[in-house]
């Protein structure tokens, strides 16, 4: 059956995966806490969602540096730094006296996750035999994929029984376990070649993501012109970044790999999928609470079965990829995602908790089958020397799209609430329906793109 995977490689993947797991667990657990935080701090929906957006924004700025960091520092050094940063962020959030400190802690967690997240996939690409990369990418996504399943329930139970601060305290032992596994398992396989990151490029990346995310996050809270300006500034920063990168021998992001059509299609598909997924994860727990009048714990229990099934399906998708190629898991998976979003777009003014639970399973089954195959097949279209850069692009897009997905869907809901002058059940249901219509359109576009461009077995591998 080919070369074996060592225990140390498994430990290294588990160590880095646990950090990503913890990041997603906090994110989804705190999504359930949004109504609680809104009451405690007297904030609107689109303000509280910065709990997610600031975290994803920081990751979006750090992840593009991953290829430079991987080349310049030992993997174990990067992991330990990331681990300690994440632990510090958890401690700060657990003790936060106000919302500003809460956001600061989330930002520090983003620094840790931004460093750690690409490490897992880099380890898989470097240290796993080619014929088993699909299944190991599935295993890596299984670790992180369990988090959205457990997060809402974990968050609901903790918030209702002990308070939202304990969401952060309870994750500290997991981060310590991750540190122990990483110290044991992470090995250095690539040579260290010091690359000095271009400071001006980092500034452009920060302005790009900051401007776009800020603009989208405030779409419903002020005049349109005031939100278009930061988006415009962000897009200008992208132009400057592209121009700057062409002049550098060692740019932070090698944009020439986007000339590879297959990789670009997978990258765009990954963006659309994350928009849909984070939007879904924001809308459903809030619907259970604000429209159906459920508790935070109930919101978690309603979404948990789908998350567990989705995580398990990531391994199934990996096996299908190794055995049959990319087309079968990707087309099947995206079809299921589109079915769920179209169904919720039709039903979302009148959805019972049971309907939400059952229909959401369809989406998470599809997403689980698809996510690892998109990443693996996209990276397979690149030269081995471009893998770290391709990984940087994929992880950057994943976090950036997640932030935009949360921002857009929360803005659509908040806009409806402001039109009716209430955050009650009916305005929230109307806003949720509009948001699902938007996500359903994205899912149909994603299906059409993959149907046309993803090759049959053997052609793209």
Automatic annotation (TrEMBL):
Where does the record say this protein resides?
Cell membrane
What keywords does the record list, in alphabetical order?
Cell membrane, Membrane, Transmembrane, Transmembrane helix, Transport
Q: Does the keyword Manganese apply?
A: no
Q: Does the keyword Transferase apply?
A: no
PROSITE patterns, per the entry? MFS (PS50850)
Q: What is its main location?
A: membrane
Task: Fetch the InterPro entries from UniProt.
Answer: EmrB-like, MFS, MFS_dom, MFS_trans_sf
**Spans through the membrane:** 9-30, 50-69, 78-101, 107-125, 137-160, 166-186, 198-216, 228-244, 265-284, 296-316, 353-380, 435-451
| Residues covered by the Major facilitator superfamily (MFS) profile domain | 8-458
Q: How does this protein sit in the membrane? A: Multi-pass membrane protein
Q: By its UniProt entry, which Gene3D superfamilies does this protein fall under?
A: MFS general substrate transporter like domains, Multidrug resistance protein D
| Domain of life of the source | Bacteria
Q: Which family does it belong to?
A: Belongs to the major facilitator superfamily. EmrB family.
Name of the protein in question: MFS transporter
Which organism is this entry from? Lactobacillus nasalidis
């Amino acid at each position: 059956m080919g070369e074996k995977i060592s225990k140390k490689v498994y430990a290294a993947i588990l160590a880095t995966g646990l950090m990503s797991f913890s990041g997603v667990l906090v994110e989804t657990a705190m999504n359930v806490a949004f109504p609680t935080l809104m009451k405690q701090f007297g904030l609107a929906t689109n303000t509280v969602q910065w709990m997610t957006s600031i975290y994803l924004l920081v990751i979006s700025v750090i992840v593009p540096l991953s290829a430079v960091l991987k080349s310049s520092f030992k993997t174990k050094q990067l992991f330990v730094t990331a681990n300690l940063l994440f632990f510090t962020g958890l401690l700060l959030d657990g003790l936060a006296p106000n919302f500003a400190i809460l956001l600061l802690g989330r930002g520090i967690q983003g620094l840790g996750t931004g460093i750690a997240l690409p490490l897992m996939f880099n380890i898989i690409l470097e240290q796993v035999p080619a014929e088993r990369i699909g299944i190991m990418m599935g295993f890596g996504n299984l670790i992180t994929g369990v988090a959205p399943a457990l997060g809402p329930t974990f968050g609901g139970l903790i918030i209702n029984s002990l308070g939202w601060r304990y969401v952060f305290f309870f994750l500290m032992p997991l981060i310590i376990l991750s540190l122990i596994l990483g110290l044991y398992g992470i090995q250095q396989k690539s040579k260290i070649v010091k690359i000095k990151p271009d400071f001006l490029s980092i500034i452009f990346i920060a302005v790009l993501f900051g401007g776009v995310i800020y603009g989208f996050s405030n779409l419903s809270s002020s005049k349109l012109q005031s939100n278009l300006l930061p988006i415009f500034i962000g897009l200008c920063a992208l132009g400057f970044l592209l121009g700057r990168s062409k002049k550098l021998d060692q740019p932070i992001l090698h944009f020439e790999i986007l000339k590879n059509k297959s990789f670009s299609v997978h990258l765009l598909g990954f963006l659309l999928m994350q928009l849909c997924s984070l939007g879904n994860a924001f809308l459903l727990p809030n619907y259970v609470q604000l429209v159906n009048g459920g508790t935070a714990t109930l919101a978690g229990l309603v979404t948990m079965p789908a998350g567990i099934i989705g995580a398990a399906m990531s391994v199934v998708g990996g096996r299908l990829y190794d055995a049959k190629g990319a087309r079968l898991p990707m087309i099947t998976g995206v079809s299921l995602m589109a079915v769920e979003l179209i169904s919720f777009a039709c039903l979302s003014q009148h959805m019972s908790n049971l309907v939400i639970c059952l229909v959401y399973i369809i989406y998470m089954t599809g997403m689980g089958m698809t996510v690892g195959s998109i990443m693996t097949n996209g990276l397979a279209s690149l030269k081995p020397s471009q893998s770290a850069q391709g990984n940087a692009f994929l992880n950057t897009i994943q976090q950036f799209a997640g932030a935009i997905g949360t921002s857009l869907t929360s803005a659509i809901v908040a806009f409806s609430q402001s039109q009716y002058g209430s955050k009650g059940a009916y305005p929230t249901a109307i806003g949720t329906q509009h948001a699902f219509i938007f996500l359903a359109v994205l899912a149909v576009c994603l299906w059409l793109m993959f149907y046309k461009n993803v090759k049959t077995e053997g052609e793209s591998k």
